[in-house]
Design a protein that fits this description.
Helices cover 48% and strands 13% of the residues. The protein has 247 residues and is an alpha+beta fold. The chain has a four-stranded antiparallel beta sheet. Strands 1-3-2 form a three-stranded antiparallel beta sheet. Strand 5 and strand 6 form a beta hairpin. Helix 4 packs across helix 8, helix 7 packs parallel to helix 9 and helix 8 runs antiparallel to helix 9. The N terminus is likely disordered.
Length: 247
Amino acid sequence: MRINVTEQPGATGLRPLSARSVVLSLLLGAHPPELAVKDLVRAVTAFGVGASTLRAALSRMVAAGDLVRTDAVYRLSDRLLARQHRQDESVRPRTRAWNGDWEMVVITATGRGAAERAELRARLAALRLAELREGVWLRPANLSRPLPAELARVAQSCTARPDTPGLELAALLWPLDAWSAHAHALLARVAEVRRPADGLTVFAAVVRHLLADPVLPPELLPADWPAPALRTAYADYRTGIAVAIGL
């Protein structure tokens, strides 16, 4: 099973972000992920969100468990801290030199319901594994991260050396051409950004797309792979927007 690309290649119809999305984008990019109300009011004004709209959004987000409020400071909830960690990993993945080994995870648990199976598949995809066939997931062993210990309850993991050549196997597991085409389309959109609100919308799409980057070793990637350029553009934007809104 291939990992889906987040948008259609060349798509340009990015929707404007809601007040909730603006707040989440700002906090997910902040370290530590918290901002005082006065700083949020100043920040969201640059994105066309008024103070009253912001306060209503903050109340709903606290009620929904997105944010935690302490006095006049809002911070991400534990659930969204996990999302921030995934986002950080997508922007700055930790890799190591590849020696030709592949990680393989074989699902051994049986009798699970559809919801539980779907959740497990999502967790494995978030680990940048891809499904070769039902219940067999793998990827090059070039990421500097251990597999979660709890995975051992439902699967067995090992290191493998598949007979299929690495380039051929990577092309089978991931839609590399489609991912690359959409990344180039996003870079073109980045070059057109003129207003902070437009930039936030585009770079929210950039982060979503980077979450689907398989982060393969260079020797398994097509020529002109755009992921490094996309990451550099995002890092530059975060620096620029922090200066522009005084955070």
